[in-house]
């Protein structure tokens, strides 16, 4: 999801949450700033929808919940609120104390990259996500070319990086009993003369 220009006014987390409940638009909360999130592109939305469907079918009947862009995540260690593109949580879902709308325990987070969020998703946002005790796996998905980056937690302060760029590649998830086919994920997204681009 793209990030709009950040206002300079500083808010408390409580003020942010009160405003967010009343707002029709979603915003992140970072270091006292409320950062509005703009709408995504068709490619971004197709990838997000496809990943949600692939995970849902792959995990059907298993003790996991899948959430997409409208589900707020609280990162307690840095008191940050975000809306990841896709999250998977091992049940039971844990909520921020006193809230019914903010989860805290993802095992997998996936972000679909955009020009405005690419550096943030790889850098500061990933650093914040790594403070979540349950967080085990991170996917960065490029919606404009066949390319996925996978980060799997090995131990404290150690993550294994793997990248995928082949149409026949399959991602065996470490944090979930599921696999993702790049052919299925990118179907209808990258097309050239009726074929998926590689």
UniProtKB/TrEMBL annotation:
<keyword id="KW-0378">Hydrolase</keyword>
<dbReference type="Pfam" id="PF05685">
    <property type="entry name" value="Uma2"/>
</dbReference>
<protein>
    <submittedName>
        <fullName>Uma2 family endonuclease</fullName>
    </submittedName>
</protein>
<dbReference type="InterPro" id="IPR011335">
    <property type="entry name" value="Restrct_endonuc-II-like"/>
</dbReference>
<dbReference type="InterPro" id="IPR008538">
    <property type="entry name" value="Uma2"/>
</dbReference>
<feature type="domain" description="Putative restriction endonuclease">
    <location>
        <begin position="14"/>
        <end position="182"/>
    </location>
</feature>
<dbReference type="GO" id="GO:0004519">
    <property type="term" value="F:endonuclease activity"/>
</dbReference>
<keyword id="KW-0540">Nuclease</keyword>
<keyword id="KW-0255">Endonuclease</keyword>
<dbReference type="InterPro" id="IPR012296">
    <property type="entry name" value="Nuclease_put_TT1808"/>
</dbReference>
């Amino acid at each position: 999801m793209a990030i709009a220009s950040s206002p300079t006014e500083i808010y408390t987390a409580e003020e942010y949450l009160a405003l967010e409940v009343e707002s029709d638009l979603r915003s992140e909360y970072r270091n006292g700033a409320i950062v509005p999130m703009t709408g995504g592109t068709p490619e971004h939305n197709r990838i997000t929808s496809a990943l949600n469907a692939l995970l849902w079918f792959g995990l059907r009947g298993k003790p996991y919940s899948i959430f997409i862009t409208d589900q707020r995540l609280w990162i307690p260690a840095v008191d940050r609120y975000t809306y990841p593109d896709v999250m998977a949580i091992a049940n039971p879902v844990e909520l921020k104390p006193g809230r019914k709308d903010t989860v805290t325990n993802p095992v997998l987070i996936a972000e679909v990259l955009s020009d405005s969020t690419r550096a943030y998703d790889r850098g500061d946002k990933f650093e914040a996500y790594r403070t979540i005790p349950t967080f085990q796996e991170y996917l960065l998905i490029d919606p404009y070319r066949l390319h996925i980056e996978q980060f799997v937690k090995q131990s404290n302060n150690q993550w294994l990086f793997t990248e995928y760029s082949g149409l026949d590649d399959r991602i065996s998830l470490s944090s979930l009993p599921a696999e993702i086919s790049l052919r299925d994920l990118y179907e209808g997204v990258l097309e050239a003369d009726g074929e998926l681009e590689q």
